[in-house]
Amino acid sequence: MSKDMTLKIALLQLLPEGGLDKQLEKGRAACVKAKEMGADIALFPEMWSDGYYLPQDGKQLAALSIDAKSDFVRKFGMLAAKLGMAVGITFLERNEPKPLNSIILFDRNGKERLHYSKVHTCAFDLEKVLAAGEEFYVTELDIGRDIIKVGAMICFDREFPESARILMLKGAEVILAPNACPMEINRLSALRTRAYENMLAVATCNYPKGQPDCNGHSTVFDGVAWLSDEPGVRDMCILEAPEEEGIYLAEIDIGMLREYRRREVMGDKYRHPRKYGALTE
Questions:
Q1: What are phi and psi of 88, to 5 degrees?
Q2: Residue 134 has pLDDT above 50, yes or no
Q3: Side-chain half-sphere of 85: how many Cα atoms within 13 Å?
Q4: C-alpha pair distances (Å), 133 with each of 115, 163, 181, 237, 281
Q5: Peptide bond into 231 cis (omega under 30)
Q6: CA–CA dist 170, 153 (Å, integer)
Q7: I need a surface site. Which of 100, 188, 255, 258 has the fewest CB within 10 A?
């Protein structure tokens, strides 16, 4: 593995403490630890600002939502600059008429590089009180020794192949995927498939056991299904965390991924988009 062509992602698989101040304090401490572990990016689970708490009462929900320029979000940008490490902070974003489920990625200089709101909200469940995002985004993230093309999708977005496909078409090499649900064989298989069919890495950060309806198992699939100089296939899962709370570090060989993308056949190479009209009708 080439040292200068790797991307180290810390998955902050944390239990919420309750209350914005406590979330800020615990989140900042976790980022400091992630930096000590050598991370280039620290990623939070879905909607860290309130621990994925979604009251169905409009006034309660509005009281929990925060602005994208709030002190809570801004302080993670300042921390990113202080640590020299990118931070993907997630939050319940204030918005009219309904809040959004959002992530902002700050680079190692504290600059906002990506602001994404969940497109495929779970409108059949608690997320019916949320508005849906409108678009998928990819940014160039300077980690100091390389520039990585990074996109984001959130939890239920995973179940729609179009989410990762659009990010791939926009150039993503790595997808950051905050999460808040039970990670079992079918959901894990969906993540593996998104990585496989698009030849990109998918890093998913979930809440640990102890958070309602969550069980840890944060993962990183690096998108490389086989190597030309090795027999058979390889396991793309380079990290699967246990159920327990913790900070889990994965090291993605970006050089290997780029070489794989250059020579292999998935992704955009043999698509026939003019034949896919039914997808948008």
A1: -105, 100
A2: yes
A3: 25
A4: 10, 12, 20, 29, 20
A5: no
A6: 13
A7: 258
List the domain boundaries for the chain: 3-279
| CATH number assigned to the domain covering 3-279 | 3.60.110.10
The predicted-structure confidence for 22-52, as pLDDT tens digits, reads as follows 999 999 999 999 999 999 999 999 999 999 9
Whether the CB-CB separation of 249 and 37 falls below 8 Å is answered with: yes
Q: How confident is the model at residue 200 (pLDDT cuts 50, 70, 90)?
A: very high
